[in-house]
Amino acid sequence: xxxxxxxxxxxxxxxxxxxxxxxxxxxxxxxxxxxxxxxxxxxxxxxxxxxxxxxxxxxxxxxxxxxxxxxxxxxxxxxxxxxxxxxxxxxxxxxxxxxxxxxxxxxxxxxxxxxxxxxxxxxxxxxxxxxxxxxxxxxxxxxxxxxxxxxxxxxxxxxxxxxxxxxxxxxxxxxxxxxxxxxxxxxxxxxxxxxxxxxxxxxxxxxxxxxxxxxxxxxxxxxxxxxxxxxxxxxxxxxxxxxxxxxxxxxxxxxxxxxxxxxxxxxxxxxxxxxxxxxxxxxxxxxxxxxx
Length: 292
Fold this sequence. Notes:
Strand order of the largest sheet: 1-2-3-4-7-6-5-8-9-11-10
Mean pLDDT: 91
Radius of gyration: 19 Å
Low-confidence stretches: none
Structural class: alpha/beta
Oligomer: single chain
Order of helices and strands: EEEEHHHEHEHEEHHEHHEE
Largest sheet: 11 strands, mixed
């Protein structure tokens, strides 16, 4: 963590401002420390990451459980080993579509929501303006810890503020972020997607854009119906909205004045071992939303 973000933080429990009360630095970065809000709520900085002790989702995206079974060496390779060259190209084009919008920001705070394995973050670090200050946020302390090590090894001069927090209750004050982006981060939040979009809209400045990305599917196709059944069984019926175009557009329009969609790719999905969507053998589209 770097002190530059302290003025824009707020307590997720009471919305009060924070003070830094203890710190150990490595150069400019605070690697160990403690912040305390005006009402006494305390959170810790550990190994460079500001940790708000958020609870990970039980059914999806539990990185802590995943890392119990995987070594550091396995971490990135496992997700790519079964992908075809075409799938890798589709993914790269998808990320490039987000980065194309993100590089329009020339200064200020850029929030990467639900950073996960850092696939988007890696490209942001390569391409955004030097005056842009990046905040990487994810529920999982573990995944951010690995991202931080990985990117520091590749470029020790990179400055990123890593925050382990709940994207539905960001520890950031209203209207202070200049741009937010995510690589299917809200999609992976499943039934909490709208809550994440709503809170991201809260922290953005007036007319500051959200660059979101999602996957469209045909809700009447067999695969999509099976997904809907699975979500219903897991008491997550609301999560059907993550792949239905009209639902996605409606959610964005609730919180933003203008919403533009940019189709990055559409075609028939190949087998995807790690993902719930898109469904093998059925039509899907990768879309980037620019919402302001």
